[in-house]
Design brief:
By secondary structure, this protein is an alpha/beta fold. It is built from 17 helices and eleven strands.
Length: about 450
């Protein structure tokens, strides 16, 4: 960490400027769902603040980017380009279907080692989840006991809003952000109740079965003008009604589904194959995991939601209609298997059948022994910090520049989402340059100095 501080001093050419207001006061980060991902994130931030560990995987804390021409060699930390929230002034809260405090939940999740958690026991134990909005019809494998009761879904939304106001006052927060860290819900297609704010609010009053719990949280946050990110493949805020509402209330939104293991690898590898005009005949993917997410996805209705999220990636990157000789009729299969012995340590195995010069076949095997929550935690942090920045910059609605973190990114109506991680990173960096008041980089300088 000392090297990080020293590097910051030597690379700080100017103070952050541009369109964003300063990040003053405390930022409250609220997570619906306080299981493995949320506890790993919260405990991780605490460990970083105490100097026990480094924020590896987080661009807001460790990422650099170029400002100006290459010859200037000005590559500061992103936090020196735009005014980001200080991690030491962040507080945490949220909701869960079990009443365990964050220390108990982290021990149960079994992601972080017990020695680290014991050092953080006191502050983690103080964070207790609020009663959750939960309906077993949407997540059949879970049995929630710490849940809200209300006559209508609108009443539940109002109860969540009351929780938010109480949390903000109790913790003396200047601003809030919400990031969904809950489970994957059953597959729901967009329908009439999702089209307009009026139809959606009427659906809340009439307990529409097409409005899932994640949508209730999204509605509550967006209605209050609070930035919202969706870390699961649920529709959540990815419906016209909530997109329209986010613009009216000036709430930045982003979704959906944290890009962690296997899909992260696909968005790295597939652009490379396409760039070299290598053909693909098939891509078979299978996963084994034993955490709560694996248990939930063991149900076919919940798996379908995840499958749709994971399958769309290659189709957009490879564009088979434009490159039929390379990708027409390529076979793409995704499997997820619940295997309790692995816990949160997921294994993502890919077999890729490619073809090269003169059509000769080749194979690539990828076996990613990853830690799901370890990969997700810095994504939660970055989405929260960047969404807060967007709010302070006067940006609202869908934040396409945050697609970098998501499996199935939201895009404005009439546009398709970009999945290529290198294009996503370029868009993210240029957005930060814009917010910071710096010239965008398009790599087209004719003097070879761009």
């Amino acid at each position: 960490m000392a090297a990080r501080k020293a590097a910051t001093k030597t690379n700080r050419s100017t103070k952050p400027k541009g369109i964003a207001s300063k990040a003053t006061g405390k930022l409250g980060i609220l997570t619906p769902g306080m299981g493995a991902v949320a506890t790993t994130f919260i405990a991780g931030v605490m460990a970083i603040n105490k100097g026990y560990a480094s924020p590896i995987g987080s661009l807001t804390q460790m990422g650099r980017m170029r400002i100006g021409k290459r010859t200037k060699k000005n590559i500061p930390y992103m936090s020196d380009v735009v005014p980001l929230q200080d991690l030491k002034k962040v507080v945490f809260g949220g909701w869960d279907i079990f009443k365990d405090n964050m220390y108990e939940a982290a021990v149960h999740a079994d992601v972080l080692d017990k020695e680290l958690l014991s050092k953080l026991k006191a502050p983690l134990s103080k964070i207790k989840p609020m009663k959750a909005v939960f309906d077993k019809k949407y997540v059949k494998k879970l049995h929630g006991t710490h849940v809200k009761k209300a006559k209508t879904k609108m009443d539940l939304a109002k109860a969540v809003m009351a929780d938010i106001r109480r949390f903000k006052k109790t913790n003396n927060c200047s601003r809030l952000v919400m990031v969904w860290c809950g489970s994957t819900e059953i597959y729901i297609e967009e329908s009439a109740v999702h089209k307009t704010i009026e139809a959606f609010e009427k659906g809340l009053e009439k307990n529409s079965k097409l409005i899932a719990p994640s949508m209730i949280y999204a509605y509550a946050a967006i209605k209050m003008g609070i930035p919202y990110a969706n870390g699961a493949p649920n529709l959540s805020c990815d419906i016209p009604a909530l997109v329209e509402l986010s613009k009216k209330t000036q709430a930045p939104i982003a979704g959906k589904d944290f890009k962690t293991g296997q899909t992260l690898m696909k968005t790295i590898l597939a652009p490379g194959f396409k760039a070299r005009a290598l053909g693909i005949d098939g891509w078979f993917s299978t996963n084994i995991l034993g955490n709560r997410d694996g248990e939930v996805l063991d149900d076919p209705d919940n798996f379908k939601t995840k499958e749709v999220s994971k399958l769309g990636v290659l189709e957009q990157i490879l564009e088979p209609k434009l490159y039929p000789e390379l990708y027409k009729d390529f076979y793409h299969k995704v499997r997820i298997n619940y295997y309790p012995p692995r816990g949160d340590n997921k294994e993502g195995w890919d077999n890729i059948d490619i073809k090269g010069w003169l059509g000769y076949p080749m194979q690539i095997k990828v076996d990613f022994l990853c830690r799901d929550s370890i990969l997700a935690a810095p994504i939660v942090l970055d989405l929260a910090i960047f969404l807060d920045l967007a709010k302070r910059s006067g940006m609202s609605g869908i934040q396409e520049w945050l697609s970098f973190y998501l499996k199935s990114p939201q895009a404005p109506e009439g546009r398709y989402p970009i999945h290529d991680i290198f294009k996503q990173l370029s868009k993210l960096e240029n957005t930060l340059r814009y917010i910071g008041g710096h010239k965008l980089i398009d790599h087209l300088g004719l003097d070879y100095d761009e």
